[in-house]
Write a structure and sequence with these properties.
The complex is a heterodimer. Chain A is α+β, with helices and mostly antiparallel strands. Chain A has helices spanning 38-51, 123-132, 152-162, 169-173, 180-191, 200-213, 224-228, 236-251; strands at residues 5-14, 23-33, 74-75, 78-79, 101-105, 113-116, 119-121. Helices cover 78% and strands 0% of the residues of chain B. Chain B has helices at 2-9, 11-36, 43-54, 58-87, 104-107, 109-128, 137-144, 148-175, 184-214. At the A-B interface, strand 4, helix 6, helix 7 and helix 8 of A face helix 1, helix 2, helix 4 and helix 8 of B.
Chain lengths: 256, 215
């Protein structure tokens, strides 16, 4: 059986560097197999560009199996493309029709600088994690694995939150470029577990403080993040983050 | 004091103030609506309600001061958050589509809010600060609400209020951290019911008064 192929018109955002103004360039992707992933399609286009001695389209990717959070672009106005709970690398060309025109743009936010074309600098997320998205574990003998009981419900919720791969689709799709879903997933993941308790007060305050400081917008409960998240992270995590914030800012003992 | 400043400095702190003041307005709208329903009982019943309300004396002034404080909080936070959100994405997308979360109500909150603010100013000038020495409240209301321009403005403004409450009500609970699969569907459903109730409840009054004058 021969593989079905499609022809596409791509309108791709090209930008030489953070200070370049950027523009949309048009490319024709011909004979694209419907079995290809979106990134493989871009690879084919780039191969054609390289053969013509043109600068290939820069984009990020790593695992290409939807678990690393490295890839991501806006496809026709949707973060990671129109399929729900799918990263760009797991988006297959069978979801597109022959003759389609695709607008491909980088994730946009003040806190995410464009490095080149579709490649963005997401180190702002790392800075938020550094501000509090961790637990401190002293070295020594390994504690008994079952010494700290965790209920199934809590561990399931924590695992759901921990599914966040930090791709930035929440920020990209939020009308306000808010990072609340990301921060809430990271805070929830630790706040639900006993190991996260000792630093819980400082964690939420410091991470929110860093998030604001980096220039992300404010959450207005539009729920676009939840709809765009490739890992299906719920905004119930944002409510939990809000509760953690209230607990920390209004009901905690000030640190000495 | 440092704690208060820190609270206000952070995005969630501002949003919590937005939420509490917004819920305050939601409660006020309910009281206002119940009062307005006396109009359907005719001039005498409405005036007896107005007299009872005025008989409350200082309580009215305290409530008015409270509403003014709520307005100051809601407005100042809204303006701050709006402009912060505007600068959070300096370059906009060439193409952006909704992922499925955004609604007409949620996407227009700053604009419906601005329309409500303008309406409230007009509303206060027309009724509250009108000359009450010559005419009764009922006469002021019925003379204003028989002019087509006012009727259109009032009906439009009440649809806008309904939209604002539609997103604002459940959103306030979410911001206050009250979101759980057990009761969030009920809060969201109530948000829709409440906004429709306010829209119809308030919006039908100018139409009723117009119909009354046509008889």
């Amino acid at each position: 059986m021969s593989t079905q192929t499609i022809n596409l018109t791509l309108k791709v955002w090209r930008q030489n560097g953070p200070d370049d103004k950027g523009r949309l360039d048009t490319y024709h992707a011909k004979n694209i197999s419907k079995d290809m992933s979106f990134l493989e399609m871009l690879d084919v286009v780039n191969e054609g560009l390289s053969k013509k001695n043109q600068d290939p389209i820069a984009f990020d990717s790593d695992c290409r199996e939807g678990i690393c959070g490295m890839c991501g672009a806006m496809v026709n106005g949707h973060a990671h493309g129109p399929e729900s709970e799918t990263t760009l690398c797991q988006l297959h060309m069978r979801h597109f029709k022959d003759g389609d025109t695709l607008y491909i743009e980088p994730f946009r936010a003040r806190a995410f600088k464009i490095i080149k074309d579709l490649v963005i600098d997401r180190s702002a997320f790392d800075q938020i994690i550094q501000a509090g998205g961790f637990i401190s574990v002293n070295t020594g003998g390994a504690p008994d694995a079952n010494a700290t009981p965790v209920s199934l419900e809590k561990s399931s919720l924590a695992m759901d939150a921990a599914a966040c791969i930090g791709c930035g689709a929440c920020v990209a799709s939020c009308p306000n470029a808010s990072a609340m879903l990301f921060v809430s997933a990271k805070v929830s993941h630790l706040a639900l577990l006993p190991q996260g308790q000792p630093e819980a007060t400082r964690r939420s305050l410091n991470m929110i403080c860093e998030m604001d400081h980096l220039g992300f917008g404010n959450c207005s409960n539009e729920r676009e993040c939840e709809a765009a998240c490739p890992k299906g992270i719920s905004i119930q995590n944002i409510a939990r983050l809000n509760r953690e914030f209230i607990k920390s800012s209004l009901f905690s003992t000030p640190s000495v | 004091m440092d704690g208060v400043l820190q609270f206000l400095n952070q995005s969630i702190g501002k949003k919590i103030l937005m939420a509490i003041s917004g819920l305050g307005f939601c409660a006020f709208l309910l009281v206002h609506l119940i009062g307005n329903l006396f109009i359907y009982g005719g001039q005498d019943l409405f005036h007896s309600y107005v007299d009872h309300l005025h008989a409350l004396g200082p309580f009215i002034y305290i409530s008015e001061a409270g509403l003014f404080i709520l307005l100051c909080i809601h407005l100042s936070m809204a303006v701050t958050l709006y402009f912060q959100n505007l600068v959070a994405r300096p370059t906009t997308y060439v193409m952006k589509r909704n992922a499925g979360g955004r609604t007409l109500a949620s996407g227009t909150m700053p604009y419906t809010g601005l329309i409500i603010l303008i309406f409230v100013v007009i509303h206060l000038i027309t009724f509250k600060f009108a000359d009450h020495s010559q005419r009764t409240v009922f006469e002021i209301v019925s003379s204003a609400l028989t002019q087509p321009g006012y009727i259109a403005l009032y009906v439009f403004a009440m649809i806008v209020v309904g939209l604002h409450v539609n997103h604002g009500f459940w959103s306030a609970f979410q911001t206050l951290g009250i979101d759980h699969p057990k009761y969030m569907p009920a809060i969201r459903a109530f948000s829709v019911i409440y906004s429709v109730m306010l829209g119809i409840g308030f919006g039908f009054i100018p139409i009723y008064i117009m119909l009354l004058s046509l008889r």
